[in-house]
């Protein structure tokens, strides 16, 4: 059963010269429940914009995005916020942890936005990612690899149905990148969460059963390398 | 963590992050609010306290002159006496129908700067300085007799000078203390007056004959009084005012005391206005500081807000974070303004007590405090609206870095 269904999705931006640049032009794209999909694509080709459209962070110019049977593009702002909090976990390349808050607080804040009963225990989850003894550490007191693990825990704390990972290993060394990917896949597998990861790193994409090429998914080759 | 707890955590973090600027904004609010409350309430409190401290008298009869000077001199023991009245005038008014009580006063001497006031002992026996309350003498003391060189010391004076029953002192001539003008007479303290919070605490009471016949005083002192304190029965005030102020030309009948005091306080309105405008000015600066603090913090917090939005926080939540931050700053400022007010009031109360003996109540509750508190908080919130609007409009996609 498909969790994510995208049809005729298009997003353009206005270039400084005044021209309209088409960044995302996806005819059809689906993801099934508990499916793992890795999409490769060059940096600046529009993958982040695609993820932002799926998460409801950006609104498309046209097209439909259905998550769990709900049409995201027709939702009100606040409904999209709630859907993002409850159904989607997001892992960023630069982790985007809240610097003024501890590991535990980063997770608790995320929990407060979803506000539903089906959430993981933050202490257990931090323990699971190997940070059980560092729950009160601030992000700047952690190594890059540890920060990434907090980001993974934060993405999964609300037991989302879909995890979107945007170059999650981009800031890590090869050893930490491999460990981090292993952990992310393991956690998603355990909770039967769909994982959609985009990266320019071939080594990361190779681990996925389903592999896609952004250039094939989106017809917006005109802006390749510019966004 | 509930949404409210999350909101509070983010607000306090914002305040902590810009602790110095936030503190400056709160201090400016506190100064403004305190100044505003101070100018308003201290004047009102002083006027009420002065009116209530008229010691149970309705009017003062004295030499021809200013009513205010007469009241300040006879009731509050301030300023110089405008002149003397013949003893006969006291006898006349005492026996006037409509006059319930009349007590003569004679002034002209001091001890260590505190005035000696000569009067009849009956003032302490019969007169109610407050409805149903007569003067009390502290245990171990008694009232002076009208023909002896005895003194009853006001509570404030006794505490200040450390005087006690049995102590002896020699008065000094004049209303201000000059070491070289010591009289030869020796007075013995026979009682300490219990505290009343009125000007009676600020003087040393002696028999009127003591002042009238004090060695070194001019002979006309012996048949004159400085003023007569009058308590009226019914509406006799109108008739007496007509008799003394309109038809006669030998004495002034200062009545009603409250109205004369109100005129006096009205003269201070310009000063009150100046302070009020300063308060408005400081208040406006405080609002601008809040605006500036929040606006500057917005530039740095855009990314944080974008992250929060990407995690599912709504626009309203982010808006409330900024408004909550301005609310916290203004709440601290509003509480601080009461502290500033209490300090101002404390200093003013001390000064007024030292000078007049009148006791102000700095802790008396007034609905004005609630209004001022609400206005300060509201102004703080209004100052937070422009940056809150910026937060509302934060573009998540643009502020989440980096993009691939």
What does this molecule look like?
The complex is a heterodimer of chains A (about 230) and B (about 400). In chain A, helix 2 crosses helix 3 and helix 5 packs parallel to helix 6. Chain A contains 8 helices and 9 strands. With about 230 residues, chain A is an alpha/beta fold. A 5-stranded parallel β-sheet of chain A has the order 6-7-8-3-9, with helices on both faces. Chain B is of the alpha+beta class and about 400 residues long. Chain B contains 13 helices and 14 strands. In chain B, the strands form 3 sheets. In chain B, strands 1, 3, 4, 7, 8, 9, 10, 11, 13 and 14 form a 10-stranded mixed β-sheet that branches. In chain B, strands 2-12 form a two-stranded antiparallel ribbon. The longest helix of chain B is centred in the C-terminal third of the chain and has 42 residues. The mean pLDDT of chain B is about 85. The interface between A and B is large, with 44 and 30 residues.
Short description:
The complex is a heterodimer of chains A (227) and B (404). Chain A has 227 residues and is of the alpha/beta class.
The count of β-strands of chain B is: 14
Q: Total helix count of chain A?
A: 8
Order of helices and strands of chain B: HHEHEHEEHEEEHEEEEHEEHEHHHHH
Strand content of chain A: 25-35%
Give the oligomeric state: heterodimer
So, CATH architecture of chain A? Answer: 3-Layer(aba) Sandwich
What is the CATH class name of chain A? Alpha Beta
- Gyration radius of chain A, rounded: 17 Å
Please, what is the CATH homologous superfamily of chain A?
P-loop containing nucleotide triphosphate hydrolases
Q: Approximately how much helix is present in the residues of chain B? A: 40-55%
* Strand order in the largest sheet of chain A: 6-7-8-3-9
Sheet with the most strands, sense and barrel status of chain A: 5 strands, parallel
Please write the string of helix (H) and strand (E) elements of chain A: EEEHEEHEHHHEHEHEH
Q: In terms of per-residue confidence, which ranges of chain A show pLDDT below 50 for 5 or more consecutive residues?
A: 223-227
